[in-house]
Amino acid sequence: MVELHARARALLCRESPLPPLPMTPRGELAPLVPPSPGQRFLPFLPSHQEQAVSLAARFMELANARPGEAGLSAVLDEAEQQARQGDAEWVKYALRVFIAHHPEGRVLSVPPLQERAPRLVVPSQRQELPRKGNPGTPGAEVWLDYFREDTGLNDHIDTWHAHHPAAGYPDPTNPQRRLLPDRRGELFWYTHQQLLARYDTERLAFGMPRVVPLSDYASPINEGYDPQLPGFAPRPPGLSPRGIPGYGITDHATRRDRLFTAASSGLLWHGDSPILLDSLEQLADTAESNRGSVDGEAWADPLGPYGSHHHLGHVLLACLTGPRDRTGLPGVMASPATAARDPLFYRWHRHVNDILDAWQSAHLPPHDLSDAPQVRMRKWLGDGTAPAHQSPDILLCMHRDIPGATAPDFDGQRWGEALFGGENWDSPPPAFSVTTHTLRTHMARQPVRLPDGRELLKPHLDHDPFHYFFRVENPLPREQTVTVRIYLAADAFAEDRRMWMELDRFAHTLGPSRREVIHRPSRLSSVVHERGWPAHLLLPRGRHEGLLVRLMVLLTDPELDPEPGYPFNRPFPPGQRIADLSARPQVATRNLWLHHAST
Q: What is the mean pLDDT of residues 427-438?
């Protein structure tokens, strides 16, 4: 098995030049030609997806024919042979799909992005504008290069696309059949919604405006980007979107308008038959598009009724290179491993998410929260009117301030019960010297090896580790298992449901008729361990003087399986503010400060 691991690793980490795209005699990039292994692999092209997933199905057939190590050896033999016939990225992607979805394949591992493609994680090292400059100018985007070029962030997005191929993944028991994970469309929306919320909060820390959706396909794009990566072309500022051979900007605008009409009307059309949208799933599948699209077998046709709006947006923007560029290389929007480096990635996904949010806002009824568990978290300990967002039952401690927290046998639950429960149940947070109302972020440095063998230290955001302690009362004479949901939003964005960032979600069982302290270290965050979000980006960047944020804790019934983003995935009732949630007994909020330490 050690040899098989080494062979898989060697293949996935194989360095090979990224070839140019096909070009017309006039020098236009022409990616829509029929796919072939000798061509550059573009994961956002549905036809390329289909061909790569077919190779993953071939790997599954080989593994099924000879279970165990013999089957895995046959898979790697085939992969190595295929990789010699053209762009190895086709084979690498197919092998990652196989590893993610086949029981035999899961014994192999996929190295992190910095190991399998170190050339793609090198920072662009663009020259920064002075921080005293106007934060609204396009050039100020360079201030956020550290976030967009973050190795963990780009690895997260690249991994998501390998685990959730738009063409569907082969059924291990019948590899010619394609499957889509349950609620894939919702996850597509929620993954990008959460990324946009974090990116906009990151921009707020610099005083920059929120991301503007790239919904106008005619106006010049002010943001330029030069990734300084081999195999990718820069995009100068001031270019207007343009079509590619076989697919024009008007074709793209037509699909955009059809999708917005569907979001507004609540109807998708398959030929002459209307399809009532009763969930986000089918609209998201169609807008992306994937095998769940209402277009059915035509999901991969860019010129189908709804086309491949999301995917072809990536391709069009990747092909938006300088007028004198004759290299045939696309921009970074062409690859999931590099797309998030470009400021246009966020503008494009804000536009795509606006389509999905338009349907949510128009057609989803608000959550009434009447099915909440019978538990209590207090809003205030004093007399009179409780001040907003000062729950005494949300307590935070920095890891370094907790005695014995570094010991391997440290029991945070017992420590929290002893300090914050019992006779101290009614003590406010300031009564405890170890609690804090401030969380801290800082810039760390990650070693990155350059293609020429030199090493540099790449800056990335990080935060000081901390612990949550929540005081919760169960008034019922029986156990209650609850799901604890933790969200964070900048105070400036707290009334925008799309700006709440999920920090964690976990189950906890409360004893009958008990007051309990629930402990949770930040390092166990579910968005990190279950969804693959980079641990060092759990918190958005603070400000030197402090950025005011709001922490919200919701206790929900785990039996109900609410949708991703609950309760922020639906509009709130007319006249109800998000802040009004804090009046409910199962919800608590507390204002905090995010401070960013100087380097």
A: 96
